[in-house]
Design a protein that fits this description.
With about 250 residues, the chain is mostly helical. It has helices at about 10-25, 30-50, 55, 60-75, 85-95, 95-100, 115-130, 135-145, 160-165, 170-175, 210-240; strands spanning about 105-110, 185, 190-200. A hairpin with a 3-residue loop joins strand 2 (about 185) and strand 3. The longest helix is centred in the C-terminal third of the chain and has 27 residues, at about 210-240.
């Protein structure tokens, strides 16, 4: 006993077994006393940490404890490996999650924001009319548009990657275009944009068999997430929680 806290014989024997396997020889009474002293010291340090309120003051200690509790809950409630019909049904119910994103090849003509924004819109409309009259894109861009430091690569890109070049609002515009269609002028904080959708490869879901391991991992991840949500809900129900609202 260490201040009313028990160091069990089971814990002592567990550590002794580890020491004996490392030592490759029978343990002596001195070895046994050494291990017991270390366990006593460890328990004293843990208790002192509580006395010093380190659980609240030290974020590393707090995070380690939270992680240890989470791992314990998961280990105790680890679900059995689901059968194939269960996984197949899970896959079918989450096709959107497992589908590959659409790929888009987009071109743009940019009209930099200036003091006269109406002039920018007029330039964009003239450029659009020139393109609709089967004008050459490079020529129209050179004649009407403003240069960009980094332009969109002439290749198929995912919407996430395309967003790096033109932003999410313009990606939404491009996603709604038909192949070969020219957008209306789109105004942003930086200026006015004309977009052309050159090519599209629609999203598609891979077969279940080709990603069965990924489906299993996602199934387990969501099962663990549900377990933790239920466990935290139980802890809240058992606790006395008072929230004082600010005035």
């Amino acid at each position: 006993m260490v201040n009313d806290k028990i160091i069990s014989l089971q814990e002592l024997n567990r550590v002794l077994a580890i020491l004996e396997s490392d030592k490759n020889s029978p343990l002596t009474d001195s070895d046994r006393r050494f291990v017991l002293d270390r366990l006593i010291d460890d328990e004293l340090m843990v208790q002192q940490g509580k006395n010093l309120n380190l659980l609240r003051l030290d974020s590393n200690v707090r995070n380690s404890l939270i992680r240890a509790v989470s791992e314990t809950v998961m280990a105790q409630s680890a679900p059995s490996v689901p059968d194939k019909p269960t996984l197949t049904n899970f896959y079918q119910s989450n096709l959107a999650f497992f589908s590959r994103p659409a790929l888009l090849e987009v071109q743009q003509i940019f009209f930099r924001s200036k003091s006269d924004n109406e002039h920018n819109l007029q330039r964009a409309q003239r450029a659009r009319s020139a393109l609709l009259k089967h004008g050459d894109f490079a020529e129209v861009k050179s004649e009407f548009g403003d240069p960009l430091t980094i332009d969109i690569p002439a290749t198929l890109l995912t919407p996430v990657k395309l967003k790096d070049y033109i932003g999410s609002s313009l990606v939404d515009v491009a996603s709604r275009l038909d192949v070969g269609e020219i957008s209306q002028p789109v105004r942003t904080a930086k200026g006015v944009h004309l977009l052309i959708l050159r090519e599209r490869q629609d999203a598609g879901a891979p077969t279940f068999d080709s990603i069965s391991e990924l489906v299993l991992k996602e199934y387990q991840r969501r099962s663990y997430e549900t377990t933790m949500t239920e466990y935290l809900s139980w802890l809240r129900d058992e606790a006395d929680i008072v929230i004082k609202e600010s005035p």
